[in-house]
Amino acid sequence: MAVEIGRRITAEVMAVDLDEGRVRLAMTATENPELWAFLKSRHRGEILSGTVAAIERFGVFVSLDDGPDHPVFPGVGFITVPELSWRHIDAVSDVVRVGQHVSCEFLQFDDWNGEARLSLKAMQPDPFAEFVEGTGVGQTLHGQVTKVVPFGVFVQVADGIEGLVHLREVTRMPVETPEDVLQVGDEVTVVVTEIDRQRRRLALSREVSPDLR
Hints:
The protein has 2 domains: 18-123, CATH 2.40.50.140; 127-212, CATH 2.40.50.140. It contains 4 helices and 12 strands. The protein has helices spanning 28-31, 33-40, 127-133, 167-170; strands spanning 12-17, 22-26, 47-56, 59-64, 77-80, 101-110, 115-119, 140-149, 152-158, 161-166, 187-196, 201-206. It has a 5-stranded mixed barrel with strand order 3-4-5-7-6. Strands 8-9-10-12-11 form a 5-stranded mixed β-barrel. Strands 1-2 form a two-stranded antiparallel sheet. β3 (47-56) and β4 (59-64) form a beta hairpin. The longest helix has 8 residues, at 33-40. It is elongated, with a radius of gyration of 24 Å.
């Protein structure tokens, strides 16, 4: 909603920045008290259900089964792209479609937009966590190159699980780019060199024959 200079408004104070001398206000709190009360009463981890109302390149709007409508957006619930799936996706439509009924975990109350931030992937087990339970440093794996970047190559070693082979681990021979050695689609044997559970990262080293070292 546009606000003109000099217009009187009623709003709720959301944050005070003493260093900057600024106060952040939310008009939604007073103009849509039912919506505000609904969102403020939600708790992290709570499961909310609804219907996918609109799909955008930046995420998905969900019209919740319980709760008021949003005065501006297609739905009170919103799922950002990273919260749609544990796996890499090329398009939002690969995961959900308009009209689909979904159950999501409530993450937080976005008081700036007056919406409930939701997670769809939280309703599914984390494939990385499951994978590393049976994987250790030093273990040999087989996979396929999925992406070549200036600093190395990404190798898919299981469904939805990719690890990085850094350029220095691609070959012992001096090369300018990884593409001098590997291409997307190549089958490779790698060794696990590091598992970062917190950041969900897998570091790999390419197993190469002695004549290529």
